[in-house]
Protein backbone atom coordinates (compact mmCIF):
# COMPACT_ATOMS: atom_id res chain seq x y z
CA UNK A 1 0.00 0.00 0.00
CA UNK A 2 1.05 3.58 -0.60
CA UNK A 3 1.55 5.70 2.51
CA UNK A 4 0.04 9.17 2.34
CA UNK A 5 2.41 11.87 3.53
CA UNK A 6 1.10 15.21 2.32
CA UNK A 7 -2.07 16.88 1.11
CA UNK A 8 -2.73 20.24 -0.42
CA UNK A 9 -5.76 21.15 1.57
CA UNK A 10 -7.39 21.15 4.96
CA UNK A 11 -10.95 20.74 6.01
CA UNK A 12 -13.37 20.27 8.84
CA UNK A 13 -15.48 17.43 7.64
CA UNK A 14 -18.70 18.85 8.94
CA UNK A 15 -20.23 21.96 7.39
CA UNK A 16 -19.99 24.85 9.80
CA UNK A 17 -22.11 27.85 8.98
CA UNK A 18 -21.02 30.85 10.95
CA UNK A 19 -21.73 34.43 11.59
CA UNK A 20 -18.79 36.49 12.72
CA UNK A 21 -19.63 35.22 16.21
CA UNK A 22 -21.33 31.85 16.02
CA UNK A 23 -20.99 29.53 13.04
CA UNK A 24 -21.93 24.60 8.85
CA UNK A 25 -17.64 22.94 8.56
CA UNK A 26 -13.91 22.10 8.68
CA UNK A 27 -10.35 22.78 10.06
CA UNK A 28 -7.06 24.01 8.83
CA UNK A 29 -4.77 25.20 11.58
CA UNK A 30 -2.41 28.12 11.74
CA UNK A 31 -0.18 26.06 13.99
CA UNK A 32 -0.08 22.27 14.08
CA UNK A 33 1.13 20.74 17.33
CA UNK A 34 2.93 17.41 17.15
CA UNK A 35 1.52 14.25 18.71
CA UNK A 36 3.94 14.61 21.59
CA UNK A 37 2.97 17.11 24.25
CA UNK A 38 5.07 20.28 24.08
CA UNK A 39 6.83 20.82 27.39
CA UNK A 40 6.36 24.23 28.96
CA UNK A 41 9.60 26.13 29.31
CA UNK A 42 8.55 27.19 32.79
CA UNK A 43 6.54 25.51 35.56
CA UNK A 44 2.79 25.83 35.13
CA UNK A 45 0.34 26.92 37.80
CA UNK A 46 -1.26 23.93 39.50
CA UNK A 47 -5.04 24.02 39.82
CA UNK A 48 -5.33 26.91 37.35
CA UNK A 49 -8.61 27.72 35.64
CA UNK A 50 -9.41 29.60 32.43
CA UNK A 51 -12.57 31.50 31.51
CA UNK A 52 -13.36 31.92 27.81
CA UNK A 53 -16.30 34.17 26.88
CA UNK A 54 -18.75 32.91 24.25
CA UNK A 55 -21.71 34.85 22.93
CA UNK A 56 -24.34 32.12 22.85
CA UNK A 57 -25.44 29.14 24.93
CA UNK A 58 -24.37 25.81 23.37
CA UNK A 59 -26.82 23.98 25.63
CA UNK A 60 -26.09 20.57 27.14
CA UNK A 61 -26.90 18.39 24.14
CA UNK A 62 -23.34 17.60 23.06
CA UNK A 63 -23.17 15.15 20.15
CA UNK A 64 -20.79 14.56 17.26
CA UNK A 65 -23.43 13.70 14.65
CA UNK A 66 -25.57 16.81 14.31
CA UNK A 67 -23.64 19.63 16.04
CA UNK A 68 -22.88 22.33 13.47
CA UNK A 69 -22.79 25.77 15.09
CA UNK A 70 -19.58 27.31 16.40
CA UNK A 71 -20.13 27.01 20.13
CA UNK A 72 -21.55 23.48 20.03
CA UNK A 73 -18.55 22.40 17.97
CA UNK A 74 -16.15 24.12 20.36
CA UNK A 75 -17.73 22.10 23.15
CA UNK A 76 -17.57 18.87 21.15
CA UNK A 77 -13.85 19.40 20.49
CA UNK A 78 -13.19 19.75 24.22
CA UNK A 79 -14.80 16.35 24.81
CA UNK A 80 -14.01 14.24 21.74
CA UNK A 81 -11.19 13.58 19.27
CA UNK A 82 -11.12 12.86 15.49
CA UNK A 83 -9.00 10.23 13.78
CA UNK A 84 -6.95 12.98 12.15
CA UNK A 85 -7.15 16.38 10.56
CA UNK A 86 -5.62 17.36 7.22
CA UNK A 87 -3.86 20.72 7.18
CA UNK A 88 -1.69 22.64 4.75
CA UNK A 89 1.26 21.12 6.63
CA UNK A 90 0.08 17.55 6.13
CA UNK A 91 -1.84 15.13 8.30
CA UNK A 92 -2.21 15.86 11.99
CA UNK A 93 -3.02 12.61 13.78
CA UNK A 94 -5.20 12.31 16.86
CA UNK A 95 -6.78 8.88 17.41
CA UNK A 96 -5.06 7.44 14.32
CA UNK A 97 -1.37 6.67 13.87
CA UNK A 98 -1.32 6.64 10.07
CA UNK A 99 -3.39 6.22 6.90
CA UNK A 100 -2.40 4.28 3.81
CA UNK A 101 -3.95 4.20 0.33
CA UNK A 102 -4.11 1.10 -1.88
CA UNK A 103 -2.39 1.18 -5.30
CA UNK A 104 -5.85 1.30 -6.89
CA UNK A 105 -6.67 4.46 -4.92
CA UNK A 106 -10.03 3.34 -3.56
CA UNK A 107 -9.13 1.59 -0.28
CA UNK A 108 -7.75 3.51 2.71
CA UNK A 109 -6.42 1.73 5.78
CA UNK A 110 -6.25 3.62 9.07
CA UNK A 111 -4.14 2.29 11.94
CA UNK A 112 -5.41 3.46 15.32
CA UNK A 113 -3.53 4.40 18.46
CA UNK A 114 -3.52 1.73 21.13
CA UNK A 115 -4.09 2.26 24.85
CA UNK A 116 -6.44 5.24 24.32
CA UNK A 117 -9.21 5.27 26.92
CA UNK A 118 -12.66 6.80 26.97
CA UNK A 119 -12.99 8.97 30.05
CA UNK A 120 -15.12 6.26 31.71
CA UNK A 121 -12.12 3.93 31.56
CA UNK A 122 -13.29 1.78 28.61
CA UNK A 123 -10.79 1.18 25.77
CA UNK A 124 -11.13 2.99 22.45
CA UNK A 125 -11.16 0.53 19.50
CA UNK A 126 -12.01 0.24 15.82
CA UNK A 127 -15.64 -0.61 16.61
CA UNK A 128 -16.10 2.98 17.88
CA UNK A 129 -14.83 4.34 14.56
CA UNK A 130 -17.08 2.08 12.48
CA UNK A 131 -20.07 2.91 14.65
CA UNK A 132 -19.50 6.68 14.38
CA UNK A 133 -19.00 6.78 10.60
CA UNK A 134 -22.00 4.54 9.96
CA UNK A 135 -24.15 6.73 12.21
CA UNK A 136 -22.95 9.79 10.27
CA UNK A 137 -23.77 8.09 6.97
CA UNK A 138 -27.26 6.93 8.00
CA UNK A 139 -29.60 9.40 6.31
CA UNK A 140 -32.19 9.30 9.09
CA UNK A 141 -29.67 10.82 11.53
CA UNK A 142 -29.19 13.99 9.43
CA UNK A 143 -25.46 13.89 10.12
CA UNK A 144 -23.61 17.15 9.52
CA UNK A 145 -20.85 15.36 7.55
CA UNK A 146 -22.94 12.86 5.60
CA UNK A 147 -22.44 14.53 2.22
CA UNK A 148 -18.65 14.36 2.70
CA UNK A 149 -18.86 10.58 2.99
CA UNK A 150 -20.78 10.04 -0.25
CA UNK A 151 -18.88 9.07 -3.41
CA UNK A 152 -20.60 8.61 -6.78
CA UNK A 153 -23.88 8.60 -4.91
CA UNK A 154 -22.73 5.77 -2.64
CA UNK A 155 -21.55 5.98 0.97
CA UNK A 156 -18.03 4.99 1.94
CA UNK A 157 -17.87 1.44 3.35
CA UNK A 158 -16.23 1.36 6.78
CA UNK A 159 -15.01 -1.92 8.27
CA UNK A 160 -12.96 -2.95 11.30
CA UNK A 161 -10.19 -5.32 10.21
CA UNK A 162 -9.11 -5.83 13.83
CA UNK A 163 -9.34 -3.84 17.09
CA UNK A 164 -6.93 -1.17 15.85
CA UNK A 165 -7.32 -1.17 12.06
CA UNK A 166 -10.15 0.40 10.05
CA UNK A 167 -10.62 0.14 6.31
CA UNK A 168 -12.46 2.76 4.23
CA UNK A 169 -13.56 1.64 0.75
CA UNK A 170 -15.05 3.92 -1.92
CA UNK A 171 -16.57 2.92 -5.30
CA UNK A 172 -13.76 4.46 -7.38
CA UNK A 173 -10.60 6.50 -6.78
CA UNK A 174 -11.19 9.99 -5.44
CA UNK A 175 -8.89 12.98 -5.35
CA UNK A 176 -10.32 14.18 -2.04
CA UNK A 177 -11.17 11.01 -0.09
CA UNK A 178 -8.59 11.46 2.67
CA UNK A 179 -9.74 15.04 3.22
CA UNK A 180 -13.38 13.96 3.37
CA UNK A 181 -12.72 11.30 6.03
CA UNK A 182 -10.93 13.83 8.25
CA UNK A 183 -12.20 15.89 11.15
CA UNK A 184 -15.09 13.68 12.25
CA UNK A 185 -15.15 13.26 16.02
CA UNK A 186 -15.46 9.68 17.25
CA UNK A 187 -18.13 8.71 19.79
CA UNK A 188 -18.19 5.60 22.02
CA UNK A 189 -20.16 2.65 20.64
CA UNK A 190 -20.72 1.23 24.13
CA UNK A 191 -22.56 4.42 25.18
CA UNK A 192 -24.59 5.14 22.04
CA UNK A 193 -25.28 1.69 20.55
CA UNK A 194 -28.97 1.71 21.57
CA UNK A 195 -29.62 5.43 20.96
CA UNK A 196 -32.22 6.16 18.29
CA UNK A 197 -31.99 9.96 18.26
CA UNK A 198 -28.43 11.30 18.37
CA UNK A 199 -29.64 14.88 18.36
CA UNK A 200 -31.62 14.61 21.58
CA UNK A 201 -30.96 12.03 24.30
CA UNK A 202 -29.77 11.90 27.91
CA UNK A 203 -26.38 10.43 26.91
CA UNK A 204 -25.39 13.74 25.36
CA UNK A 205 -25.65 15.58 28.67
CA UNK A 206 -22.91 13.49 30.30
CA UNK A 207 -20.56 13.03 27.37
CA UNK A 208 -18.01 10.21 27.46
CA UNK A 209 -15.13 11.15 25.19
CA UNK A 210 -11.40 10.93 24.50
CA UNK A 211 -10.81 14.69 24.42
CA UNK A 212 -8.68 16.81 26.74
CA UNK A 213 -11.58 17.68 29.05
CA UNK A 214 -14.72 16.19 30.61
CA UNK A 215 -18.03 17.87 31.40
CA UNK A 216 -18.03 19.29 34.90
CA UNK A 217 -21.25 21.29 35.03
CA UNK A 218 -23.66 23.11 32.76
CA UNK A 219 -25.67 26.09 33.96
CA UNK A 220 -28.09 27.40 31.34
CA UNK A 221 -27.34 30.93 30.23
CA UNK A 222 -24.27 31.16 32.48
CA UNK A 223 -21.49 28.68 31.69
CA UNK A 224 -20.25 25.27 30.64
CA UNK A 225 -17.61 23.95 33.02
CA UNK A 226 -14.96 21.46 31.90
CA UNK A 227 -12.54 19.53 34.09
CA UNK A 228 -9.28 18.05 32.82
CA UNK A 229 -9.23 14.48 31.53
CA UNK A 230 -6.43 12.72 33.41
CA UNK A 231 -6.33 9.96 30.78
CA UNK A 232 -6.02 12.26 27.75
CA UNK A 233 -3.76 10.44 25.31
CA UNK A 234 -1.90 13.60 24.24
CA UNK A 235 -0.93 14.47 27.80
CA UNK A 236 -2.81 15.65 30.87
CA UNK A 237 -4.03 19.26 30.37
CA UNK A 238 -2.04 21.85 32.28
CA UNK A 239 -5.13 23.92 33.11
CA UNK A 240 -7.40 22.02 35.50
CA UNK A 241 -10.70 23.77 34.82
CA UNK A 242 -12.03 25.65 31.79
CA UNK A 243 -15.23 27.68 31.73
CA UNK A 244 -17.07 28.72 28.60
CA UNK A 245 -18.72 31.82 30.07
CA UNK A 246 -21.95 32.67 28.23
CA UNK A 247 -22.09 36.46 27.76
CA UNK A 248 -24.48 37.29 24.88
CA UNK A 249 -23.60 40.98 24.72
CA UNK A 250 -20.18 41.58 23.13
CA UNK A 251 -19.68 44.89 24.94
CA UNK A 252 -20.39 43.28 28.31
CA UNK A 253 -17.94 40.49 27.48
CA UNK A 254 -15.25 43.00 26.48
CA UNK A 255 -15.73 44.90 29.74
CA UNK A 256 -15.30 41.63 31.65
CA UNK A 257 -12.06 41.02 29.73
CA UNK A 258 -10.74 44.52 30.44
CA UNK A 259 -11.63 44.13 34.12
CA UNK A 260 -9.84 40.80 34.38
CA UNK A 261 -13.03 38.80 35.02
CA UNK A 262 -12.42 36.52 32.02
CA UNK A 263 -9.20 35.31 30.42
CA UNK A 264 -10.02 35.07 26.72
CA UNK A 265 -12.54 36.05 24.06
CA UNK A 266 -12.85 36.89 20.38
CA UNK A 267 -12.59 40.63 19.81
CA UNK A 268 -13.08 42.94 16.84
CA UNK A 269 -10.67 45.25 15.01
CA UNK A 270 -12.46 48.21 16.57
CA UNK A 271 -11.52 46.89 20.02
CA UNK A 272 -7.79 46.77 19.38
CA UNK A 273 -6.88 50.38 20.27
CA UNK A 274 -8.45 49.96 23.69
CA UNK A 275 -6.91 46.51 24.15
CA UNK A 276 -3.43 47.76 23.24
CA UNK A 277 -3.63 50.18 26.17
CA UNK A 278 -3.87 47.21 28.54
CA UNK A 279 -0.40 45.61 28.84
CA UNK A 280 -1.95 42.62 30.59
CA UNK A 281 -3.82 41.68 27.37
CA UNK A 282 -2.51 40.33 24.07
CA UNK A 283 -4.27 39.80 20.72
CA UNK A 284 -3.65 37.11 18.11
CA UNK A 285 -5.22 37.76 14.65
CA UNK A 286 -5.51 34.66 12.47
CA UNK A 287 -7.20 33.49 9.30
CA UNK A 288 -10.16 31.12 9.40
CA UNK A 289 -10.95 31.05 5.70
CA UNK A 290 -14.35 32.47 6.62
CA UNK A 291 -16.48 33.86 3.77
CA UNK A 292 -18.96 36.60 4.66
CA UNK A 293 -21.94 36.83 2.32
CA UNK A 294 -25.32 38.30 1.48
CA UNK A 295 -27.89 35.66 0.52
CA UNK A 296 -31.17 36.34 -1.30
CA UNK A 297 -34.29 34.19 -1.13
CA UNK A 298 -35.40 34.00 -4.79
CA UNK A 299 -38.64 32.17 -3.94
CA UNK A 300 -39.86 35.19 -1.95
CA UNK A 301 -42.08 37.70 -3.71
CA UNK A 302 -40.20 40.03 -6.03
CA UNK A 303 -36.84 38.27 -5.73
CA UNK A 304 -37.85 35.69 -8.32
CA UNK A 305 -37.01 38.53 -10.73
CA UNK A 306 -33.38 38.03 -11.85
CA UNK A 307 -32.98 41.69 -12.84
CA UNK A 308 -33.93 42.77 -9.30
CA UNK A 309 -31.35 40.38 -7.83
CA UNK A 310 -28.63 41.76 -10.12
CA UNK A 311 -29.68 45.31 -9.23
CA UNK A 312 -29.13 44.43 -5.58
CA UNK A 313 -25.73 42.88 -6.25
CA UNK A 314 -24.46 45.88 -8.23
CA UNK A 315 -25.72 48.21 -5.46
CA UNK A 316 -23.47 46.65 -2.82
CA UNK A 317 -20.05 48.19 -2.31
CA UNK A 318 -18.21 45.26 -0.68
CA UNK A 319 -15.25 47.39 0.38
CA UNK A 320 -17.51 49.79 2.28
CA UNK A 321 -19.60 47.00 3.82
CA UNK A 322 -16.54 45.20 5.21
CA UNK A 323 -14.77 48.42 6.16
CA UNK A 324 -17.78 49.38 8.28
CA UNK A 325 -17.47 46.10 10.18
CA UNK A 326 -13.71 45.66 10.45
CA UNK A 327 -12.42 49.23 10.35
CA UNK A 328 -9.10 48.41 8.70
CA UNK A 329 -8.41 46.65 5.36
CA UNK A 330 -5.67 44.58 7.03
CA UNK A 331 -8.44 42.54 8.66
CA UNK A 332 -10.33 41.60 5.48
CA UNK A 333 -10.17 40.95 1.74
CA UNK A 334 -13.14 41.49 -0.55
CA UNK A 335 -14.03 38.53 -2.75
CA UNK A 336 -16.19 37.38 -5.64
CA UNK A 337 -16.11 33.58 -5.26
CA UNK A 338 -17.75 31.27 -2.74
CA UNK A 339 -14.20 30.12 -1.97
CA UNK A 340 -12.15 32.31 0.40
CA UNK A 341 -9.58 34.59 -1.18
CA UNK A 342 -6.77 32.54 0.37
CA UNK A 343 -7.97 29.33 -1.31
CA UNK A 344 -5.61 27.87 -3.92
CA UNK A 345 -8.56 26.73 -6.11
CA UNK A 346 -10.18 30.15 -6.41
CA UNK A 347 -11.30 31.30 -9.86
CA UNK A 348 -9.84 34.77 -10.30
CA UNK A 349 -11.95 35.30 -13.42
CA UNK A 350 -15.24 34.27 -11.83
CA UNK A 351 -18.43 36.08 -12.89
CA UNK A 352 -18.46 39.35 -10.90
CA UNK A 353 -20.97 41.97 -9.82
CA UNK A 354 -18.87 45.11 -9.25
CA UNK A 355 -20.32 48.06 -7.38
CA UNK A 356 -21.98 50.19 -10.05
CA UNK A 357 -25.02 52.27 -9.13
CA UNK A 358 -25.80 53.19 -12.74
CA UNK A 359 -25.82 49.55 -13.79
CA UNK A 360 -27.90 48.73 -10.71
CA UNK A 361 -30.48 51.34 -11.71
CA UNK A 362 -30.52 49.93 -15.25
CA UNK A 363 -31.25 46.44 -13.95
CA UNK A 364 -33.89 47.91 -11.64
CA UNK A 365 -35.58 49.57 -14.61
CA UNK A 366 -35.46 46.32 -16.60
CA UNK A 367 -37.08 44.48 -13.71
CA UNK A 368 -40.28 46.49 -14.17
CA UNK A 369 -40.56 46.79 -10.39
CA UNK A 370 -40.80 49.87 -8.20
CA UNK A 371 -41.37 50.62 -4.52
CA UNK A 372 -39.74 47.33 -3.56
CA UNK A 373 -39.26 46.71 0.19
CA UNK A 374 -37.08 43.82 1.36
CA UNK A 375 -36.39 42.45 4.85
CA UNK A 376 -32.73 41.87 5.70
CA UNK A 377 -31.95 39.54 8.65
CA UNK A 378 -28.78 39.02 10.65
CA UNK A 379 -27.73 37.45 13.98
CA UNK A 380 -29.02 39.74 16.73
CA UNK A 381 -25.91 39.88 18.93
CA UNK A 382 -23.46 40.28 16.06
CA UNK A 383 -22.31 43.90 16.09
CA UNK A 384 -20.26 43.40 12.92
CA UNK A 385 -23.25 42.17 10.93
CA UNK A 386 -25.34 45.04 12.26
CA UNK A 387 -22.83 47.51 10.81
CA UNK A 388 -22.83 45.66 7.49
CA UNK A 389 -26.64 45.69 7.39
CA UNK A 390 -26.78 49.46 7.91
CA UNK A 391 -24.40 50.08 5.00
CA UNK A 392 -26.34 47.72 2.71
CA UNK A 393 -29.59 49.44 3.68
CA UNK A 394 -28.11 52.78 2.68
CA UNK A 395 -26.58 51.51 -0.57
CA UNK A 396 -29.71 49.74 -1.81
CA UNK A 397 -31.65 52.91 -1.06
CA UNK A 398 -29.64 54.65 -3.80
CA UNK A 399 -31.12 52.19 -6.30
CA UNK A 400 -34.66 52.77 -5.02
CA UNK A 401 -34.86 49.59 -2.93
CA UNK A 402 -36.16 49.95 0.62
CA UNK A 403 -34.53 47.67 3.20
CA UNK A 404 -35.96 46.81 6.61
CA UNK A 405 -33.32 45.51 9.02
CA UNK A 406 -34.31 42.54 11.19
CA UNK A 407 -31.96 41.28 13.94
CA UNK A 408 -32.87 37.68 14.80
CA UNK A 409 -31.96 35.61 17.86
CA UNK A 410 -28.99 33.40 16.94
CA UNK A 411 -30.60 30.03 17.61
CA UNK A 412 -33.76 31.00 15.72
CA UNK A 413 -31.58 32.38 12.93
CA UNK A 414 -29.62 29.13 12.59
CA UNK A 415 -32.87 27.23 12.12
CA UNK A 416 -34.42 29.74 9.73
CA UNK A 417 -31.72 30.54 7.20
CA UNK A 418 -31.44 27.11 5.48
CA UNK A 419 -35.21 26.75 5.19
CA UNK A 420 -36.68 27.29 1.76
CA UNK A 421 -40.15 27.50 3.28
CA UNK A 422 -39.49 30.49 5.52
CA UNK A 423 -41.09 33.78 4.47
CA UNK A 424 -40.00 35.98 7.37
CA UNK A 425 -37.20 37.71 5.48
CA UNK A 426 -35.94 38.21 1.92
CA UNK A 427 -32.19 38.49 2.50
CA UNK A 428 -29.75 37.60 5.25
CA UNK A 429 -26.14 38.22 6.23
CA UNK A 430 -23.96 35.43 7.52
CA UNK A 431 -20.68 33.62 6.94
CA UNK A 432 -19.25 30.11 6.78
CA UNK A 433 -16.01 28.24 7.38
CA UNK A 434 -15.70 25.20 5.12
CA UNK A 435 -11.95 24.67 4.76
CA UNK A 436 -9.75 24.74 1.65
CA UNK A 437 -11.09 21.55 0.01
CA UNK A 438 -13.64 22.72 -2.63
CA UNK A 439 -15.57 19.44 -2.44
CA UNK A 440 -16.79 20.31 1.06
CA UNK A 441 -18.69 23.29 -0.39
CA UNK A 442 -21.04 20.91 -2.18
CA UNK A 443 -23.03 20.78 1.07
CA UNK A 444 -23.89 24.43 0.46
CA UNK A 445 -24.31 24.65 -3.29
CA UNK A 446 -24.95 21.21 -4.82
CA UNK A 447 -28.56 20.30 -5.66
CA UNK A 448 -27.40 16.69 -5.27
CA UNK A 449 -26.16 17.36 -1.72
CA UNK A 450 -27.60 19.25 1.24
CA UNK A 451 -27.92 22.35 -0.98
CA UNK A 452 -28.22 24.68 1.99
CA UNK A 453 -28.27 27.71 -0.33
CA UNK A 454 -30.90 26.19 -2.61
CA UNK A 455 -29.14 26.37 -5.97
CA UNK A 456 -31.51 25.31 -8.74
CA UNK A 457 -29.01 24.52 -11.51
CA UNK A 458 -28.53 20.69 -11.63
CA UNK A 459 -25.23 21.12 -13.50
CA UNK A 460 -23.66 22.44 -10.29
CA UNK A 461 -24.30 19.12 -8.58
CA UNK A 462 -23.02 17.09 -11.51
CA UNK A 463 -19.81 19.11 -11.62
CA UNK A 464 -19.18 18.69 -7.89
CA UNK A 465 -19.59 14.92 -8.36
CA UNK A 466 -17.19 14.80 -11.31
CA UNK A 467 -14.59 16.95 -9.51
CA UNK A 468 -14.54 14.50 -6.60
CA UNK A 469 -13.40 11.66 -8.85
CA UNK A 470 -11.16 13.65 -11.22
CA UNK A 471 -7.51 12.83 -10.48
CA UNK A 472 -5.96 15.24 -12.99
CA UNK A 473 -5.40 18.49 -11.08
CA UNK A 474 -5.64 20.73 -14.14
CA UNK A 475 -8.95 19.20 -15.20
CA UNK A 476 -10.17 19.38 -11.62
CA UNK A 477 -9.30 23.09 -11.50
CA UNK A 478 -11.33 23.66 -14.69
CA UNK A 479 -14.33 21.97 -13.08
CA UNK A 480 -14.07 24.10 -9.93
CA UNK A 481 -13.77 27.24 -12.05
CA UNK A 482 -16.99 26.33 -13.85
CA UNK A 483 -18.80 25.62 -10.56
CA UNK A 484 -17.79 29.04 -9.21
CA UNK A 485 -19.13 30.69 -12.37
CA UNK A 486 -22.44 28.81 -12.23
CA UNK A 487 -23.01 29.70 -8.58
CA UNK A 488 -22.31 33.36 -9.37
CA UNK A 489 -24.65 33.29 -12.38
CA UNK A 490 -27.54 32.16 -10.16
CA UNK A 491 -27.41 35.66 -8.63
CA UNK A 492 -28.74 34.58 -5.25
CA UNK A 493 -25.47 34.39 -3.31
CA UNK A 494 -23.17 37.42 -3.08
CA UNK A 495 -19.77 36.79 -1.46
CA UNK A 496 -18.52 39.84 0.41
CA UNK A 497 -15.06 38.61 1.29
CA UNK A 498 -12.82 36.91 3.82
CA UNK A 499 -12.10 38.28 7.28
CA UNK A 500 -9.61 37.57 10.03
CA UNK A 501 -10.57 36.48 13.53
CA UNK A 502 -8.89 38.01 16.58
CA UNK A 503 -8.32 36.11 19.82
CA UNK A 504 -7.52 38.31 22.82
CA UNK A 505 -6.21 36.73 26.02
CA UNK A 506 -4.49 37.62 29.25
CA UNK A 507 -0.86 38.17 28.33
CA UNK A 508 0.35 35.59 30.83
CA UNK A 509 -1.56 32.76 29.14
CA UNK A 510 1.10 30.63 27.46
CA UNK A 511 1.11 27.78 24.95
CA UNK A 512 -0.96 29.58 22.30
CA UNK A 513 1.28 28.46 19.44
CA UNK A 514 1.41 24.85 20.62
CA UNK A 515 -2.35 24.78 21.18
CA UNK A 516 -2.80 25.97 17.58
CA UNK A 517 -5.25 28.64 16.42
CA UNK A 518 -7.73 27.03 14.04
CA UNK A 519 -11.03 27.82 12.32
CA UNK A 520 -14.26 27.43 14.30
CA UNK A 521 -12.80 25.85 17.46
CA UNK A 522 -10.28 28.63 18.24
CA UNK A 523 -7.83 26.13 19.77
CA UNK A 524 -6.77 22.86 18.18
CA UNK A 525 -5.78 21.34 21.52
CA UNK A 526 -6.47 23.25 24.73
CA UNK A 527 -4.39 20.81 26.76
CA UNK A 528 -1.30 22.75 25.65
CA UNK A 529 -2.37 26.03 27.29
CA UNK A 530 -0.99 27.00 30.69
CA UNK A 531 -0.45 29.82 33.12
CA UNK A 532 3.13 30.02 34.43
CA UNK A 533 3.66 29.37 38.11
Highlighted features:
eight-stranded mixed sheet, alpha+beta, single chain
Describe the structure.
- This protein is 25% helix and 24% strand.
- The protein is of the alpha+beta class.
- Helix 7 runs antiparallel to helix 9 and helix 13 runs antiparallel to helix 14.
- The chain is globular, with a radius of gyration of 23 Å.
- The N terminus is likely disordered.
Mind sketching the topology for me?
Blueprint lengths: L1 E2 L12 E3 L30 E6 L15 H10 L4 E4 L2 E4 L2 E6 L5 E6 L13 H12 L12 E2 L2 E2 L1 E6 L2 E5 L7 H5 L7 H4 L20 E7 L3 E6 L12 E6 L3 H9 L5 E4 L4 H5 L4 E16 L9 H10 L2 H9 L5 E3 L22 H11 L5 E7 L3 H15 L4 E7 L1 H7 L10 E7 L8 H4 L12 H12 L3 H18 L2 E14 L5 H4 L1 E2 L3 E2 L10
Parallel strand pairs: 3-14, 18-19, 18-20
Antiparallel strand pairs: 1-6, 2-20, 4-5, 6-7, 7-11, 8-9, 10-11, 12-13, 13-14, 15-21, 16-20, 16-21, 17-21, 22-23
Dominant shape: globular
Tell me what portion of residues adopts beta-strand conformation: 15-25%
DSSP summary, beta strand count: 23
Tell me the Rg in angstroms: 23 Å
Short structural description:
By secondary structure, this protein is an alpha+beta fold. It has helices at 70-79, 126-137, 177-181, 189-192, 250-258, 272-276, 306-315, 318-326, 357-367, 383-397, 410-416, 442-445, 458-469, 473-490, 512-515; strands spanning 2-3, 16-18, 49-54, 84-87, 90-93, 96-101, 107-112, 150-151, 154-155, 157-162, 165-169, 213-219, 223-228, 241-246, 264-267, 281-296, 332-334, 373-379, 402-408, 427-433, 493-506, 517-518, 522-523. The protein is globular.
Amino acid sequence: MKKIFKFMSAMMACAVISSGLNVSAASSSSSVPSDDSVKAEEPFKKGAQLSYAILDDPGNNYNVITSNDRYSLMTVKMLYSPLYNVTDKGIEYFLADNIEMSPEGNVFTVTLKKDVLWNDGQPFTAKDVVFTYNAMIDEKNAGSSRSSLMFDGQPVKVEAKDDYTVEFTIPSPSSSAVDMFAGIFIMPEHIYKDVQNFDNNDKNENAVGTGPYKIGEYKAGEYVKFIKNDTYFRGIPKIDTVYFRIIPDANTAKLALLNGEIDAMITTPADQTEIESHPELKSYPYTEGRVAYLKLNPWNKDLANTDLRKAIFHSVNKEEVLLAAYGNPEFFNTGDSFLPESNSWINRNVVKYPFDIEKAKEYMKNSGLSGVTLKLAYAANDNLQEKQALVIQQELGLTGINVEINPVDIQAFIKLWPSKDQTDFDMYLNGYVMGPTPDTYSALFSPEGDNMFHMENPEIGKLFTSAKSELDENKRAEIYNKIQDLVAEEAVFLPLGENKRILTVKADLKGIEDAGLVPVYTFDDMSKLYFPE
